[in-house]
Amino acid sequence: MVELWDRKDSFVKTFSGGMKRRLEIARGLLHHPKVIFLDEPTLGLDPQTRNHIWDYVKKLNQEEKITVVFTTHYMDEADKVSDKIAIIDEGKIIEYGTSEELKKKAGTESLEEAFLTFTGHDLRVESANSLDRMRMIRSHRK
Fold first, then answer.
1. What is the mean pLDDT of each run of 10 residues along the chain (142 residues)?
2. Are strands 92-97 and 35-39 parallel, antiparallel or unpaired?
3. What is the 3-state secondary structure (H, E, C) of the chain?
4. What is the CATH number of the domain that holds 114?
């Protein structure tokens, strides 16, 4: 299904990042879900692997009628593969619609420009989460 049959006897630790992502998707499909959630499924992958994963995900959506919900920071991917897009800022959905609707509302040519119009152009100060704070405390104790 995800073109890993020839590696069935290999340890996962020997897989490339793209192979691991494909395996994660296959694992998520074992129980034939009606909805699958993918968190940054193509992060750090080469263009060939990214395209392969998106082709596979679109096929799942169309042929198996699985609803796919995914997060991405790659606006070109969202523009290319999404039926509907929710722009989230500081944990809240601030805009929702098709790519064309969002670009029209923002008065921009690209989805990335629309995203920046809705969320602002300033760099964000990211606060540390609880795991980050625990790591900082542990490193200061050494």
1. 84 88 82 89 84 86 91 92 93 95 96 94 67 64 58
2. unpaired
3. CCCCHHHCCCCHHHCCHHHHHHHHHHHHCCCCCCEEEEECCCCCCCHHHHHHHHHHHHHHHHHCCCEEEEECCCHHHHHHHCCCEEEEECCEEEEEECHHHHHHHHCCCCHHHHHHHHHCCCCCCCCCCHHHHHHHHHHHHC
4. 3.40.50.300
Write down the pTM of the prediction: 0.73
Q: How many domains does the chain have?
A: 1
pLDDT given for residue 90 in this prediction: 86
| CA geometry: angle 71, 119, 76, nearest 5 deg | 45
Q: Which amino acid is at 132?
A: D
Residue from 138, 140, 108, 134 nearest 121 by CA: 108
Domain that holds residue 123: 5-141
Tokens (6 digits) for 98: 């098709």
Tokens 């790659």 locate to 74
